[in-house]
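MOLECULE: protein
FOLLOWS: sequence and fold
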Amino acid sequence: MSESSSYQLTQDRRELVESWGMNRRSISYVFRPTTTSQIADVFRLAKSTGRTVGLRGAGYSYGDASMNAEDIVLDLSRMKRILDWNPDSGVITAEPGVTIQDLWRYIIEDGWWPPVVSGTSFVTLGGALGVNIHGKNNYKAGPIGNYVDEFEIMLPSGEIKRCSRTENPELFFAAIGGFGMLGVFTRITLHMKKVHSGLLSVGAYSTNSFGEIVESLEERRSHCDYMVGWIDCFSTGAKLGRGLVHTANYLGPGEDLNPAQTLRVSNQEISPTIMGVVPRSLLGKFLQPFNNNVGMLAINAAKYVQGEVMESHKTVLQPHAQFAFLLDYVPDWKHAYKPGGLIQFQSFIPYDQSERVFARQIELSQKMRIIPFLGVFKRHQPDEFLMTHAVDGHSLALDYPYTESNKDGVKFLVEQMARVVVEAGGRFYCAKDSLLTSEMARAGMGEDRIERFACLKQKCDPERLLRTDLSRRLYDGFK
């Protein structure tokens, strides 16, 4: 360690670390560096003490992707400086702890927006690159990695490499989506999306089955900038997979008569109250009594009826942030799932198999009476990153309550659904996973990709200092 470093494995460094889904928690030695030299100090400490290092940003992975029980967790949330911004070109350089919220707030008044965002604004850029996040526009824009011009990454040896599509391209395409197994992003340069208004034109359309939602997305994909579907997982029979499609489009130059106003940060923020009266912070507590099959059946039915009513109206104008960050709309909504937390199962299925596979997943859930409280449906396109989760098809993300009484059932259900996914040539997403087995994860990713990643892992991290609970569970450290 450097002379100025005080990093040691002392008791005051031990903290309880929890997954965002609240389904896993463990004690780790947590370090929060503010400089690259301090990151190097942590790697030296790990090597000298025989420990491993797991990387963590905002901790918004549903499962154990940023957890490292009884070992070291390197929390990069304090490294959050904007290093350079060019409002003419839309190119920005930032540290890995900058969140998507920090990013859009910094650039929007200059007429720019992040080209890809997740459903929550609190994800860090380092974490976003680590899992190569996708948004409601993946079918058109691809993942966030498509907009990275270059990055600097520190290997566990302390060496810093600059990577782009032309400089160290193998590492570039593997580290993005490599869930922190090759090194630490220390400096990230991306290009943003030019926007001419702070508003989007948003529409809603009801669908009566999986077949209809697939058709709806295909009809609209060529002329919509964003699309996302909600699925009522309680519907059965001919209505299995019924739901709503929400679309959004950017406004063109001149369509917004007051762009300087709509692009203001204050006009993007989600209001802390509903109708200026009810604090949003109370909504999570309001939802808790409904956090059961009967309550969620009623909420899903009401949401579907509301969607049918909305469909009769014209499109509405909505700020970017309010459309994009639905998970932030109700603060701490996940607490309704306490004490056991929630499990999300997200699978990506080729186009010609998706309707059948997703219907089967819902049927299995209903048969076991472990019904997802939320289902989110998206259209996707393939990408060129090594450990990609994407396919030319669709994804369905399913949220399940995880309780003492249903834990064994949920694990069995996930195993059954995963087998259907693998048989259909589908894939999984590490940022959302909590319960996959190594067999299913490897089958989904493919041994060829895993072998190529393992070879690069050996070059970048021969002592295997970078490990997480997820990497041990799914890939056994890529041995």
Observations:
- Residues 396 and 475 are 24 Å apart (CA to CA).
- The longest helix spans residues 293-311.
